[in-house]
Design brief:
Helix 2 runs antiparallel to helix 3. With 297 residues, the protein is an all-alpha fold. Strand 1 and strand 2 form a beta hairpin. The chain has helices at residues 2-24, 32-53, 58-81, 86-110, 117-141, 147-172, 190-218, 230-259, 274-294, and strands at 179-181, 185-189.
């Protein structure tokens, strides 16, 4: 627990430093700090995933890690440096994915005894799960409007979801021991999941007021044209983000159960690997992206 607290504290401090860099450095250059973090999630997460599944040849591994290493820089280059739109950025990473998937297919055919179909499917899964979903973080980071609010929303909603699920689940599981997904994660309870939903909404409201406070100081108002009050919109987005975040946590648990491991890695003392820390955010980030790209405008 001591290691977990120390690692969590460092994580929050890094988050605050990157957020300050993003909001205070002019010209959008401060946003690149978060991009480096998301690139680390993509690459290290890919390595952790491939180490867990094992059935991947050396050449397949190199190609998959290369994809996860280039997808975020490619998107940032197109959107930030060339000032193209989100659509052009998605087109670029889509083409990149098709090329890499084709290369993996060719390797699977040409070197069938070294690289079987199962290994190829694992590689494609890693490309989507670690590479593409991590890239969605950078898409959020470079939204033309409200990117700061979206980043705060994503991190706080997921952190509050995890914390509330753990605290409420631990306190009430003696009286409400019903399991959420016993075959995948025996320690998670339904009441813990409900606590996570409450935490997600609480985190979203906290994110709203943090951004509201920062907007008074830094003049970064929220671009919003919805019919509901903005705080209510944040609360509802927090609820859905929490649902998807907990689904991501269970998905990660299913992978670990299938591979017979407790943690995906050891890079974060007390927490495990990068994927153990960001599994919820990989799924929840998609909800935040769609909400801020389509609704909070």
């Amino acid at each position: 627990m001591g290691k977990r607290v120390i690692t969590g504290t460092v994580y929050v401090l890094v988050l605050l430093c990157l957020l300050a860099l993003k909001l205070l450095v002019p010209g959008g250059w401060g946003s690149f700090g978060f991009d480096f973090l998301f690139l680390a999630v993509s690459v290290i997460g890919c390595i952790e995933f491939l180490n867990a599944v094992k059935s991947v040849s050396y050449l397949q591994r190199v190609i998959t890690i290369a994809f996860c290493a280039m997808i975020i820089p490619l998107y940032v280059l197109i959107v930030s440096v060339t000032e193209a739109g989100i659509g052009m950025g998605f087109a670029a990473i889509g083409i990149c994915f098709v090329i890499y998937a084709l290369v993996l297919t060719i390797i699977g055919v040409k070197r069938v005894y070294e690289s079987d179909i199962k290994g190829s499917l694992y590689c494609v899964t890693a490309m989507i799960y670690c590479g593409f979903l991590s890239c969605m973080f950078s898409v959020i980071n470079h939204l033309p409007h409200n990117s700061g609010a979206a980043i705060i929303m994503m991190f706080f909603t997921v952190m509050f979801t995890d914390s509330f699920a753990y605290i409420i689940g631990s306190l009430l599981k003696r009286w409400l021991p019903y399991k959420l997904a016993p075959a995948v994660s025996p320690n998670k309870t339904v009441i813990g999941g409900v606590g996570g939903l409450i935490g997600g909404m609480a985190g979203a409201v906290v994110a709203y007021y943090i951004h509201f406070g920062l907007s008074k100081v830094l003049d970064i108002g929220l671009v919003y044209s919805g019919t509901l009050p903005a705080v209510v919109a944040f609360l509802l987005i927090g609820l859905v983000t929490s649902v998807f975040g907990q689904a991501g946590d269970l998905f990660e648990s299913a992978i670990k159960r299938k591979c017979g491991i407790k943690d995906m890695g050891k890079i974060l003392p007390g927490h495990g690997g990068i994927l153990d820390r960001f599994d919820s955010m990989l799924f929840g980030g998609v909800v935040v992206l769609l909400s801020f790209a389509l609704l909070i405008v």
